[in-house]
């Protein structure tokens, strides 16, 4: 109770809502870092997933890569990279990207690979070129799974971007780390609360994306006629 | 015309899917490939649009090697229909049908107009256009598949078991529909099925394939039923091939006698006179529609047929359309009734006359000796089906059709 009211006090202090270390700035920073991690992860994982899914080969490579990335201890890696590379932004980004690669890679690969072979056969048989088969048949049909992969990646990124604060970078983790350092538990709890809000906002964003990108033909179940 | 010249396919694992095969699918005709599972039907079909490349021989469409164009270009000029339609699930029915025209660079408006027109052609309603495939029944999806294949008006259509995933009733509809479409469009159709009945019903010519991709016989359905070349073909055709063949012959030759037909309210004298001459009397109502059979013994002594309840009459089974139905329908009508007599009716349902099984024999004999159907009006369907005017013969007259290439 005490901590909650402290958190409430911290959240409602107007001074905390302005300036280069204010809540809005940190919030945006948090999203920037997360988005960047998802973007870089996607640049690596999406094409690889599309390629392997389309040719239906390389499953072992895909799963091994994903497993390795998943096995990395995020915090340990940050610390290690900071020690090795110094306090560089890359030291934070690499572990975050490692978190975004597996879901995007696996879902894209599995999604595209498992598209109904009758669909790809018909598409090819109608005269679509391989590239067109991929973009006009396989990707749209696999989109629900692919988006889920991106969503997992984003959830991972948003939840873990707090580690950026360990190596003196911004984001919402700042409040938690700094609060702990100064035993300001209101700030710690407030920061944690904001991280939860960021995760929820993330879900909302993906719900909207789903609505916009996924065809109604894939969204609905059997009609009741 | 699709010509297979010594075409063979051996898969890398050594499986011979198609042994060196020569086959010609005539323009504007339905050529059916039939055979047991694994006999290379699909392989043979898919080599035409280069979904599979042959390991020997060549395939020509109207004299041009299919390899003279890039595969995607070739495929845009060939309609392709597969078992579960393979529709784009994320696109509306309309967008699905517009696919190939759009690939070919047609304007959106033109493609849309063409697609709407085709939906009607294949028996769908305009309201279906905006639906997604999951909102259609299997049969409707298959119709969309056919419409999509026809969209750019390709002269050649490849169909791989297009109707085998739907229930028998819908399948029959789709088969009838295909024949109707074909009578209008005269496409060169290569049709794969493992169902010999479907092959017989749809094919202008039927190629029977055996395991190992061996072509056992290539003939018209009637010739196939009459003269199977070997035991394999014979057993594949099944035991009732003789009766089935009769569906290709018209019942015009059946002598229909009006004498045994008597109205229920006919004068007693007439009834008694007829009773003397006929073992069975067919009682008809005042509209001359059949009610049922009566044995001579059942006729009341005073000749008043109204005394006999309709329920006491012996069932006539089913009637057949005199001249419009096939011999098979006539024969079936005869053997179905305990009277062993077939009832022939006119278009309006009025009884024309009756014929006993024995009286059908000469007509059947005539069919036996004919290698080609005498009328060309085989109904290609089950007994009782109507022969649609303009079925086979009409198509033969249409060689100058611009669609026929
Ligand atoms: N990619 C492949 N590699 C090796 N063998 C294959 C391949 N595709 C087909 N075959 C074999 O070739 C033969 C012919 O196959 P095909 O699919 O043409 O038969 P089908 O007559 O269409 O059979 P079904 O009625 O079951 O569809 C079969 O023995 C099959 O196992
Ligand atoms: Mg097959």
Secondary structure elements and pairings:
The complex is a heterodimer of chains A (225) and B (405).
Chain A: H1 2-11, H2 23-55, H3 59-71, H4 74-85, H5 89-113, H6 117-125, H7 130-160, H8 173-181, H9 185-213, H10 216-219
Helix pairs in contact in A: 1-9, 2-5, 2-7, 3-5, 4-5, 5-7, 6-7, 7-9, 8-9
Chain B: E1 2-10, E2 16-25, E3 30-34, H1 41-48, E4 56-61, E5 64-65, H2 71-76, E6 78-81, H3 93-103, H4 108-121, H5 138-150, E7 156-160, H6 168-185, E8 188-193, H7 196-202, E9 205-210, E10 214-219, H8 221-226, H9 231-237, H10 241-245, E11 261-263, H11 268-277, E12 280-284, E13 290-295, E14 319-321, H12 327-336, E15 341-345, E16 351-356, H13 357-369, H14 392-396
Parallel strand pairs in B: 3-8, 3-9, 6-7, 7-8, 11-12, 14-15
Antiparallel strand pairs in B: 1-2, 1-4, 4-5, 9-10, 12-13, 15-16
Helix pairs in contact in B: 3-4, 3-5, 4-5, 12-13
Magnesium ion binds next to helix 1 of chain B.
Keywords (chain B): ATP-binding, Nucleotide-binding, Transport
Pfam families (chain B): ABC_tran
Biased composition (Basic and acidic residues) (chain B): 376-398
Describe it.
The complex is a heterodimer of chains A (225) and B (405). Chain A is an all-alpha fold and 225 residues long. Chain A has a single domain (22-214), classed as MetI-like (MetI-like fold). In chain A, 78% of the residues lie in helices and 0% in strands. Chain A contains ten helices and no strands. Chain A is elongated, with a radius of gyration of 21 Å. Chain B has two domains: 2-247 and 384-404, P-loop containing nucleotide triphosphate hydrolases (Rossmann fold), CATH 3.40.50.300; 261-369, Roll (CBS-domain). In chain B, the strands form four sheets. A six-stranded mixed beta sheet of chain B has the order 6-7-8-3-9-10, with helices on both faces. A four-stranded antiparallel beta sheet of chain B has the order 2-1-4-5, covered by helices on one side. In chain B, α3 (93-103) packs across α4 and α12 packs antiparallel against α13 (357-369). Mean pLDDT of chain B is 88; it is low at 374-405. The chains are: A mainly alpha (225), B alpha/beta (405). Residues 41-42 of chain B line the site of magnesium ion. Magnesium ion is lined by residues 41-42 of chain B. Chain A: It is a multi-pass membrane protein. Chain A: Keywords: Membrane, Transmembrane, Transmembrane helix, Transport. Chain A: The chain crosses the membrane at residues 33-51, 71-89, 185-209. Chain A: It is found in: Cell membrane; Membrane.
